[in-house]
Design goal:
By secondary structure, the chain is mainly α. The protein has one domain: 3 helical TM bundles of succinate and fumarate reductases (Up-down Bundle), CATH 1.20.1300.10. It is 70% helix and 0% strand. The chain contains 8 helices and no strands. Helix 1 packs across helix 3 and helix 6 packs antiparallel against helix 7. It starts with 6 loop residues before the first helix and ends with a helix. The structure holds protoporphyrin IX containing FE.
Length: 240
C-alpha cells in the first residue's frame, strides 16, 4: 500500500532535520573552534585559517549553512505564528518548554542575522564595532572579536545568543528523537530530556568560556587548563 505524505508533513520533517543536520552539527563544531581562543590568539587564528583553506568553502557555506539556516528560520517563524499558545490554560512543563523553543527561535533569528552580517560580511561599522569581516582576515580574527567584546552590551548579547542556541538545539534534539519515534516510552523520554539538558548546558559552558577567552586568557577557566603557546603570547602582547 502506497503511503501518502502531505506537503505540510514533509516541510515539517525537513524543518526538524535541518535543525539537527547540518545546523546542530555546525553549532557543535563552531563552539569547539571558538573554544580554541582559550589557548591564545595564534591558536584561534590558525583554526580560522584552517577553515578558510577548506576546499569548496563557499559551496559548503551556501548549501551547508546559509540555505538550511534560511529555511529553518523562515519555516520556524511560520510555525510560531500559526501555533496556539496553551501555556496559560495548561501551565505545565512541556508547554512552557515548547513556548521557550519558539521564543529562543525568534531571538536567534535576530542574533544570527547580526552575527553573520557583522563577522562574516563586515557590516555594522561605526557602532563601536570593527568594520573588518573575519572572512578573508584569519590572521586578525582574534583581534577583531576582542575589539567587539570590549563593549559590555555586545558581550551580553553574545552570551544570550550562545545560551539561546544551546537551549534551542538541546530541546530541539529532544523533540526530534521523540517525534521521529527514536525514543518511545515515558521513562526513556524523561532520560532523553535530561540528556538534552546536559547537551545544552555543556554547549552553553563551552561557548560562554569561549566568549570570555577574547577578554582574558583562558576565559573563565584556571590558566592550568590552557596551553598558551609562546607565539600566541607574542600576538597578544603586540595587541595590548
Ligand atoms: C562564542 C561566541 C561566538 C563567536 C566568537 C563566533 C565567531 C564567529 C566567527 C569569527 C565567524 C566568521 C567565520 C569566518 O568568516 O571565517 C562566525 C560565523 C558564523 N557563526 Fe559564529 N560565533 C559565536 C557564536 C555563534 C552562535 C551562538 C551561532 C548560532 C548558531 C553562530 C553562528 C554562526 C554562523 C551561522 C556563521 C557563518 C558560518 C560561515 O559562513 O562559515 N555563532 N562566528
Amino acid at each position: 500500500m502506497a503511503i501518502k505524505f502531505s506537503r505540510t508533513f514533509l516541510l515539517r520533517k525537513l524543518h526538524q532535520i535541518t535543525g539537527i543536520v547540518p545546523l546542530g552539527a555546525f553549532f557543535f563544531v563552531h563552539m569547539f573552534t571558538n573554544a580554541k581562543a582559550m589557548n591564545g590568539a595564534k591558536v584561534f587564528n590558525d583554526a580560522v585559517a584552517d577553515i578558510h583553506h577548506l576546499p569548496f568553502l563557499l559551496l559548503i557555506e551556501i548549501f551547508g549553512i546559509f540555505l538550511p539556516l534560511l529555511y529553518h528560520s523562515v519555516y520556524g517563524i511560520i510555525i510560531s505564528a500559526e501555533a496556539k499558545v496553551n501555556v496559560v490554560s495548561y501551565g505545565f512543563g512541556r508547554n512552557w518548554l515548547y513556548l521557550f523553543q519558539r521564543i529562543t527561535g525568534i531571538f536567534l533569528f535576530v542574533f544570527i542575522l547580526f552575527h553573520l552580517l557583522h563577522l562574516r560580511f563586515g557590516l555594522f561599522a561605526g557602532i563601536g564595532l570593527t568594520d573588518i569581516a573575519v572572512a578573508g582576515n584569519a590572521s586578525m580574527a582574534y583581534e577583531i572579536i576582542a575589539l567587539d567584546f570590549q563593549s559590555v552590551g555586545i558581550v551580553i548579547f553574545y552570551i544570550l545568543g550562545v545560551g539561546a542556541t544551546a537551549w534551542h538545539l538541546g530541546y530541539g534534539i529532544f523533540l526530534f528523537v521523540v517525534d521521529w519515534g527514536i525514543v518511545v516510552g515515558e521513562k526513556a523520554q524523561k532520560a532523553a530530556l535530561y540528556a538534552s539538558a546536559f547537551i545544552a548546558i555543556s554547549l552553553f559552558g563551552l561557548g560562554t568560556n569561549a566568549i570570555f577567552s577574547f577578554i582574558r586568557p583562558c576565559g573563565l577557566m584556571p590558566s592550568v587548563l590552557c596551553e598558551q603557546t609562546e607565539k600566541g603570547k607574542a600576538v597578544e602582547s603586540e595587541k595590548f
